[in-house]
């Protein structure tokens, strides 16, 4: 399957709906079903801000979206609109979960308020291609902080955009999985690593 180029549609507005506050936080939410459960993409013209994945129902995704919006923006109004705002990326994610070899390095993401260290870790992580793995210590070294394996683990545990920022490819030394933040936990991490390994054989 060939890689498809994705860019965030310029027509997506950052402006909040009339009558709401915190207009700059206006987001779109797209909910779709995949092989691993229901997922949700949150973002706007700045890029993808969240990927919620592995939920049991669309309602669970909506509830999770409300919760993370409050956490991210300190706003209980839930200023986002549910719409199929990024259909091409949704389709690519569905293909990925079905076992297709899909890369997401071209996808524009929005990760404000990162430290310089976090930004370096994310930049190096996005270079880890499909079917590849790296340890927390190795990623720390690539990010210029060889003693910061534990700090890298913290960055991975707070990753808002899994798969697109492939934190599942970061494993502990000695062949251990390490952690994974998703409703299905490390069982989903193992599934994704196996999926990729089998696809490139």
TrEMBL record:
<dbReference type="GO" id="GO:0032259">
    <property type="term" value="P:methylation"/>
</dbReference>
<dbReference type="InterPro" id="IPR036217">
    <property type="entry name" value="MethylDNA_cys_MeTrfase_DNAb"/>
</dbReference>
<dbReference type="InterPro" id="IPR014048">
    <property type="entry name" value="MethylDNA_cys_MeTrfase_DNA-bd"/>
</dbReference>
<keyword id="KW-0227">DNA damage</keyword>
<keyword id="KW-0808">Transferase</keyword>
<dbReference type="InterPro" id="IPR001497">
    <property type="entry name" value="MethylDNA_cys_MeTrfase_AS"/>
</dbReference>
<dbReference type="Pfam" id="PF01035">
    <property type="entry name" value="DNA_binding_1"/>
</dbReference>
<keyword id="KW-0489">Methyltransferase</keyword>
<dbReference type="GO" id="GO:0006281">
    <property type="term" value="P:DNA repair"/>
</dbReference>
<keyword id="KW-0234">DNA repair</keyword>
<protein>
    <recommendedName>
        <fullName>methylated-DNA--[protein]-cysteine S-methyltransferase</fullName>
        <ecNumber>2.1.1.63</ecNumber>
    </recommendedName>
</protein>
<dbReference type="InterPro" id="IPR036388">
    <property type="entry name" value="WH-like_DNA-bd_sf"/>
</dbReference>
<feature type="domain" description="Methylated-DNA-[protein]-cysteine S-methyltransferase DNA binding">
    <location>
        <begin position="116"/>
        <end position="197"/>
    </location>
</feature>
<comment type="similarity">
    <text>Belongs to the MGMT family.</text>
</comment>
<dbReference type="GO" id="GO:0003908">
    <property type="term" value="F:methylated-DNA-[protein]-cysteine S-methyltransferase activity"/>
</dbReference>
């Amino acid at each position: 399957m060939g890689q498809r180029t994705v860019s965030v549609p310029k027509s997506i507005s950052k402006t909040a709906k009339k009558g709401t506050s915190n207009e700059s936080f206006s987001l779109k939410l797209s909910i779709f079903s995949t092989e691993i459960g229901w997922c949700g993409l949150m973002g706007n013209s700045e890029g993808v801000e969240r990927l919620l994945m592995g939920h049991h129902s669309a309602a669970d995704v909506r509830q999770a979206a409300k919760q993370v919006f409050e956490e991210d923006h300190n706003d209980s109004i839930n200023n986002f609109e549910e719409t199929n705002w990024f259909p091409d990326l949704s389709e690519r994610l569905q293909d990925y979960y079905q076992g297709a070899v899909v890369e997401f390095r071209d996808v524009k993401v929005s990760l404000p308020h990162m430290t310089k260290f976090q930004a370096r870790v994310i930049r190096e992580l996005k270079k880890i291609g499909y079917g590849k793995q790296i340890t927390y210590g190795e990623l720390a070294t690539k990010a210029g902080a060889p003693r910061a394996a534990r700090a890298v683990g913290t960055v991975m545990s707070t990753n808002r955009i899994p798969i697109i920022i492939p934190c599942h490819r970061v494993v502990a030394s000695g062949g251990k999985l390490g952690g994974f933040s998703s409703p299905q936990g490390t069982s989903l991490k193992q599934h994704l690593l196996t999926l990729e390994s089998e696809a490139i054989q």
